[in-house]
Amino acid sequence: MDSQNDDTPSRRRLMGGMTAAAALAAAPAMAQQASPAPAAQPAPLAAPRDPRDPREQYPRPPFERQPQEWPGLAGRMNPRPDHGETSYRGSGRLAGRKALVTGGDSGIGRAAAIAYAREGADVAIGYLPQEQADADEVLELIRKEGRKAVALPGDIRDEAFCHQMVETAVRELGGLDILVNNAGRQQTVASLADLTTENFDWTFKTNVYAPFWITKAALPHLRPGASIIITASVQAYEPSAALFDYAQTKACNVAFAKSLSKQLAEKGIRVNAVAPGPYWTALQPSGGQTQEMLTKFGGDTPMGRPGQPVEIAPIYVLLASQESSFTTGQVLGASGGSGFP
Ligand code: NAD
Ligand code: MG
Predict the structure, then answer these.
(1) CATH number of this structure's domain 25-39+58-334
(2) Considering the entire predicted model, what is its pTM?
(3) What spacing in Å lies between the alpha carbon of 77 and ligand 2's midpoint?
């Protein structure tokens, strides 16, 4: 176990007895950020399994404006997202499995990749070349668990690259048991008149075509017991006005799981979707929200805050593990109390 996952009673007492500001300064996940978050922000728990009011567990809005060029870097966000770097604790639920996570450099995919490694899996991550700095942190964390980490930079809008990415993952990992189609593009455009064909196509290529190409390439390698997961969104059910193209692709992702699960049951392969609500990830400051919306991000959920990527990682672990053997064609959510499913 990673020594940073210190869950001793004395450490719990220490963190529990601190003021929010002092704990924030000491909390490892937040300590990585370049400039500290406002003192009013609560610290993540040092011992994540201790009961605690979830509303107070992570930062709440208002957030600072922080524009980034797409696709954005988690390493430049303030506060830094908690992807489980120091907070996720595994218990061998995926021992010996081999997983490919697209968009595994940052956000929800990074949280899934870290959790999978902590649960005993070897993990390959896909990402864009301009995200190498984020990816390097994840690759190092996977290796720190004594697991194999495979880097797969490239653009999944290219069918040939999707095929090559899967082949490399299978060769380097020595097989494939878990495929997480998680990479995604979201750009807010207020008016249909301003949504260009190029952008519409970009969103669909990334969110709809790529999972099709990647899954098709992976299928010959998957055996009974394998699990395919796709990251959909509450946007599939409650589309925002300014996410016209994105919301449609996320509805496609739900149908992907519903249809393919029926097709692959006879091969003993399960297919499910995850539908996150608002999560504090690089996708949001890099065009997923306007900067004005970002300052209030997550504030309209009953929890009053956005989710942190680590908070949805357990769903990816559950769906990948044999423990959810009768769960297929389902959509699981974690959205702070609003939205579907
Ligand atoms: P993120 O930006 O951290 O992750 C998305 C990743 O997609 C990027 O890191 C990038 O590596 C990858 N990607 C995008 N275009 C690519 C391309 N052309 N080629 C290769 N890789 C590409 O953001 P995130 O929020 O963690 O997003 C992960 C998934 O979660 C996405 O499918 C997104 O639609 C979904 N989602 C996010 C939220 C949220 O609030 N953050 C809510 C619902 C659903
Ligand atoms: Mg990224």
Answers:
(1) 3.40.50.720
(2) 0.90
(3) 11
